[in-house]
Amino acid sequence: MAVASVAQLFWSAISLSLPLAVRYLVDSIFVSRDQSQLNMVSLALVALFIFQGVIAYGQTYLLAFVAQRVVADLRLNIHGHMLGLPLRFFNERRTGEMVSRVTNDVTVIQGVLTEAPLNLLRQVITIIGGLALMLSMNWRLTLLVIGLIPSLILIAVFFGRRLERLSTIVQDRLADATAALEEALSGIRVVKSFTQEKFERQRFGQQIEATFSTAMRRARLRSAFVPLISLLAFCALVVILWFGGQQVISGGLTPGELIAFLFYMVLVGGPMGEFASLYSQIREASGAAQRIFEIMQVLPEPQESQPTQPLPPVRGQVRFAGVSFRYEDGDPKAVLEDIDLLVPPDQVVALVGPSGVGKTTLVNLIPRFFDPTRGVVEIDGRDIRKVTLPSLRSQIGLVPQETFLFAGTVRENIAYGRPGVSQVEIETAAKAAYAHDFIQQAPGGYEAVIGERGVRLSAGQRQRLAIARALLKDPRILILDEATSALDTESERWVQAALERLMQGRTTFVIAHRLSTIQHADRILVLQEGRIVEDGAHAELLEHAGLYRHLWRLQFASTELPEIDRQLGVEAETYE
Fold first, then answer.
1. What residue ranges define each of the domains in the chain, with the CATH number in brackets?
2. Using one digit for the tens of pLDDT, what is the confidence trace for 417-437?
3. Three-state SS for 456?
4. Helix axis angle, 423-432 to 489-503, nearest 10°
5. Most buried residue among 148, 319, 404, 552 by CB atoms closer than 10 A?
6. CA-wise closest residue to 168 among 292, 285, 282
7. Under DSSP, is residue 107 helix (H, G, I), strand (E, B) or coil?
8. What's the rounded Cα separation, in Å, for the pair 573 and 554?
9. Strands 318-325 and 374-379, how do they pair?
10. How far apart are CA 155 and CA 316, in angstroms?
11. Distances from the Cα of 173 to the Cαs of 112, 133, 169, 212, 347, in angstroms?
């Protein structure tokens, strides 16, 4: 950028010297009819043009490099910042909108970030240098030119504010369209299964038409702005030509001076118009920049109030002490309320209860996807807010209900948590997850491309790959969030077998709606309205007329409970 700025200085200096050469040609050469002087000045002008062309080439290349590098760095910075933002941020925004900000908004401000500074430098040099040379030739004509500047500034401000507002609206409309497109493509199976292709076309079409309509409002405003500036410039040129012509007739100016003055008028008037146009571009880009910096100003994942230290290898004891959680500070009802829980190392703890009682929220506090509103979460007696996030999360494994796989190979997905791991370790993890056989049968084996989100695999196969990925990570604490709820019977059998291997020797939290999958858990916690209302083993909870017994009756009303009722001498109660 610095070299391009120096090149701009030379380019501007050459541009300012050209009208002087024209003046010299008209007054000295054409009047005296000196052929040798004509040849010399012509050769000098050709040399200047060649030098100016070389400078323009270098400057254009350097600006292109700076533009692409700045945009690439800005996108990398935004992407890196977004990856560090808390889950709360993404829960409140659409993916398509975020994609639009990284792509479309950055493109909008690209020119302003790179070309605008040098354009401004060129315009300032040309205006100041041109006015100085014009003053040296005729101060009356120069004052007349200066008198036009305030009108140009007023017009630029008037149009600039409106262009900024419309540009922001255009980017918002484009983000809405991008979000609609992303949703339709991500949910293409749902779209096709419900035959809603026409609806999605209409929805996307409405967003595009809204973007088009706003963009045309901006185009009409911009279209009126440029001709108005040009009209003022041409009118000023006519006034200068008329007033200067009178001075030539009266002998106050030479013909060469008038021609040189007109050249300088064009040189100065052009930058004035460009300056006004540049101002409007800056106002337009500021809208996009504001959208970008809205993201950059969001604080990344939990800011530590005191220095943190890495979490050493843990045994796996987890403790919740007086933990409460609200998604928003002003929420009247807490998602979790006064949770006190101590889980020893290697214990398998199942979390059950109706939907929305806070089971997933509870386990999300362990890897600090969220921080409790009140209370403390500890691992091996250490407050997890006082350890670094990478050292904490590296010792926690997660197998969610909706397995997310990347559009790469099987090997890349299994090794995602440990880049650079050997093929032998990858295959060992796959075998332990009962995934090796179906991987070997696929064309390409471990190098087979599985498609976006693993679309080429069945739900059970995707889940087993997720388990292999977790096994390879070898975490001390494991979180299984309804890992088998979306599977058929056969797939569930394979996945359950893989999960049993995965849980061995680890502190495990299991969220399950199918109560049959957690009968053998060391401990079952029953949540209701954000509180732990029951705590015990499967058999103990069945003997107690509580929520767990009620949930079990709903799923297995004709099997085990009637016999238990008969042995205990109780009637089949209804849980209130």
1. 2-296 (1.20.1560.10), 311-395+477-536 (3.40.50.300), 403-474 (3.40.50.300)
2. 787 888 998 888 888 888 888
3. coil
4. 120
5. 552
6. 285
7. helix
8. 12
9. antiparallel
10. 68
11. 21, 48, 6, 9, 51
